[in-house]
Amino acid sequence: MTQYWEPGTEYKSGDVVEYEGNTYKIIQPHRSQSDWAPPITPALWGRVPSHNNNQHQYGQQNQPQQTYQPPSYQQPNQGQNQGYPTDQKVEPSHEEKKTNWFDLDDKRKKQFEVGGALAAGAALLGGGFALYKHHEKSEEQKKAQTWALSNWVNEARERTDQFNRNGPAGPATWVLTQGKNIPPGAIEVGKENTWTLYICRSFVEGGVQLGKASPAFQKGAVIGYKHEEIHLDTYEVLLGNMNGLRWVSAHGRLNVASLGYRPVEGGREDDGSPLYIAKALHKGVVHPGKASEKLDGAYIPYDGDEKNIKEYQILCYN
């Protein structure tokens, strides 16, 4: 039986609640607060639609015939905003969402703080989303990271909602997921022991880093960053139709022009440098990872570290 949402309650993965006549499913495990009701915290709760007849999936032969229900998100009610009066609500423009926090003027940053524009990122932090060494940062650095995290999550939701409505717009599509839920159509890269490895990415330290996902992992995703493995339960998985994609061999520092095909851009460093999707053989298993024109080879997350592999392949469009 579905329980009614209540403040001061520990909600865990898989929980479903009712609130104001609607049903919501957990996105981020957290302890609820009185001002974090499901309709105004889309980072924590996804609204479960009463019906959905517009499901889409890639027609890969090696995928089970099932449909994927991406997380359902609802924008905050216009009359509610984390306890702030409606007339104080300040929404960043499309251009501002792509602007570094430190490049915003002080007046605008204050408006976003008071107006609740940082609320989604703060809710993610409250729900357990781990930022890399967040505790070591100054208060202004924390705000910058929260701002960037919130913008990435909103962009990921928009991509997922568009896919849910219209289906794939090309041979490769990123879909937001949570926990160990791997959607049908996810590109298979390799098998380690008995589990399959998929391509994933997530926000880390101001950039979007690549890694691997599997239901066998502790939280679902493992991202490699600065010779560490970061375990995350909020991430995007790459869905694809390999009829429109191919793996192209590369060696050492990536030379995009020499590939002969356009690589699929998978993420970016915090300075904006593009990261490309790589796969490489390590100890008999093919792992997904990253490569770029700044890295000396491909890097894959493995055994608490990142391994540098000189011979690898890059995912490209046909």
TrEMBL record:
Pfam families: CBM_5_12, DM9. Residues 88-102 have a biased composition (Basic and acidic residues). GO terms for biological process: carbohydrate metabolic process. Residues 30-102 are annotated as: Disordered. GO terms for cellular component: extracellular region. The keyword Hydrolase applies. Residues 5-45 form the Chitin-binding type-3 domain. Residues 50-86 have a biased composition (Low complexity). CDD domains: ChiA1_BD. It comes from the Eukaryota. GO terms for molecular function: carbohydrate binding; hydrolase activity, hydrolyzing O-glycosyl compounds. Keywords: Hydrolase. The keyword Hydrolase applies. This is Carbohydrate-binding module family 12 protein. It comes from Collybia nuda.
